[in-house]
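During the reporting period the student researcher (J.K.) took over the structure-prediction task from the postdoctoral fellow and processed the backlog of single-chain submissions. One of the processed entries is reproduced below for the supervisory committee.
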Amino acid sequence: MLDRIRTGLIVCTFLSLGELGLAQAPFDIAPRGELNFSTGWVFLDHDAAGASQRDFDDHAFPVVSVPHANVLTPHETFDPDMFRFVSWYRKHFQAETSLRGKQVFADFQGVMTVAEVYLNGQLLGRHSGGYTRFSVELTPALKWGEENVLAVRVDSREQKQVPPEGAEKMFGYYLFGGIQRDVELRVVDRLHIEWAYYTTLGIQPQPQVKAQVSLSNGRAQEASGELLVRLLAPDGKEMSSAQASFRMAAGGKQELVVRLGPLRGVQLWDVDHPQRYVVMAEVRQGTALVDRHRTWIGIRRIHWDAETGEFSLNGRPLKLRGMSRHQTFAYVGGAAPNRLQRRDARILKYQMGLNMMRSSHYPPDPEFLDECDRIGLLVMDELPSWQFIGQSREWQDNAVQAVREMILRDRNHPSIIVWGVRGNEASPREEDDRGLYQRTYNLARELDPSRPPGGARLSDAWHGKFVPEEVETVNDYTDPSHWPQPVTTKPWLITEYGDPEQFPIWVGQGDLLRFTFHWMKYLDGLYSHPEIAGGIGWAAFDYNTPEFNNPVAVTAHHCVDDIFRLPKGFESYALASQADPALYGPMVKIMSRASPNTREVWVASNAQEVELWVNGNSLGRAKPTEFPHAPHPLFHFKLDAFEGGIIEARAWIGEKEVARDTVRTPGRARKLQLQADDNPLIADGADMTRVVVSAVDEHGTVVPREDRRVFIDVANGEFVGENPIHLEAGRIAFYVQTREGRTLPITVRVSAAGLESPEPLRLEVKLPANSLVPLSDFDMEGLSTLN
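J.K. obtained the following structure tokens:
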């Protein structure tokens, strides 16, 4: 019975295209097939002779789904070499003979760091670099109607020839290891679309879209037909179409260009109203539909003004307010599933009130970018780098290839407004590495002339020097009172600012307030200088790092949220209060723990006035006064005496109370609380949700000085974390992951000595809605829990 169960897990049959049922109308992409290949991988945590062969005995090894970390790490301190080893991933599947004659590809979104891909023992492809997508054609070694074994050798050891590594010691961040992103199986006709690229030609008087489509004819004879491009509204209504004829020799390729528009009745994409449309590109021969490619697009125009320094979106000036983001998650490193990738974008947009992020320092997961498009979060997309440029031809070729793969993968995303194609803080002098940068900047202009290239440089290493980009992208940690520094006559975007001092969650309230004021000083400086297009803080989420010259991996604590994406103090609330209340809702947050002897209370709100109540007594309404250049300055109240109790803030717009927040002096911890972000989950073996456990007093107030040990039990699911684990400032988090094909509810129990245990947490689990990778751009199954 165990053998049969296991075989059912790892043997995948991909069906005839008519049976796939890949997507719901109106976005059905048949006759093309794009099948979820992220489940049912056999994992070997070591290099093994013969593991590439079909008859290799992998029966004793675990079955996993990807994204998958080759090893789980502690969240705080660990051996920096623990993930640097060679592993194997093997997938058993069968191919229906009805598909004979098609081309079959395996599309890998990210394998860290060097991947060798074998099918039935035959080496079909090799790829260096873990952050960009690559494809391997399986057709030459595919056995129709028989069992096939796709085997991937994953070398996660240090790779000196592959960016961002190569320095004597890698500082900044960790790459981790494993197949860190989704895998898809793509089945197409030998006459098919290789890629489609869409740009907005203009928005006045009516928008127009340019479509560039690359066709490939892998047939043994000449092929001719029609390319039809259709623009569809989200409900499937056709808004526009255009077509062009083609004729290609056997084995030939051809690029076609058509225009859609003028477009009437369409809405432009912007950060506040991110309207998207679907574009279908179809290859037709007579009445036969041969191939269909589809993608989301947003119709919008960006402009970086060299005279004013402003950035504008659809003709409207927009101050860019952003944060940098590492993809590092506790325990799984870079191998976070799609739900967590999408949630990160939503935290940045809605919990931090931002309109931009920087993908420091590598291209992000495609799912993250899709969510940025969906919610209206602008992006600076960046090649893998950190304070080092290799001088070997191989290193630089790999860097250029990473830029090529990043742009070709991401250029249809309306959220992206600038390409980072320069090594982050990598060239001390402006004359350094000119040859490489000419290659990367020119490649960016060739592949996507609709966006400017840039690259984060240190503020003291660029003035008046060789500057090939159209937008100055500068890391500037100097005091905002020194702004503006001398600049060339080009738009200026600050790509890093912040505070390198460490602020873990367990520091006191005074330090957390000081941390908040430091960030607000920079934000205030940005808005006091209209000639600065905007600024991106360093950084959103704490991350594991080799910085600080430690012999072990530690956590960088100088970010707004901790590594679990939990607010550490008050800065995330101060940032969130900058959002327009008419668009994103009014908010108010007291930036205090209501500790005894509190004499000052700071309040973040986007309302016009705040009324503060202390133990039932009103101090009256006040207007915001602190950091006056920010869109919504902070409120400041002084207390005569406060020995403990309740502080309440009521936010007012005009004569209407619009929001309220209350804090209470923490008492003695009495019980634990459990809360999960998402319910239900998807039974694909990769989906997971964060679970937060807190120690609270009799009123439900988190007790910030609690650090006692918590024991965790997870039934019918996978526990991802440390057990037992100590609370940090009264709370800690872990993850719960589903098992492939298992739909029994997951139950979570926690306990701690001396505290009352909460009721068990029950998480429902359901099967994926279809064969697509769950939470992909055209399969929103499970996404409702993120709204």
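The committee noted the following: Residues 191-297 form a domain with the Immunoglobulin-like fold (CATH 2.60.40.10).
J.K. will present the remaining backlog at the next meeting.
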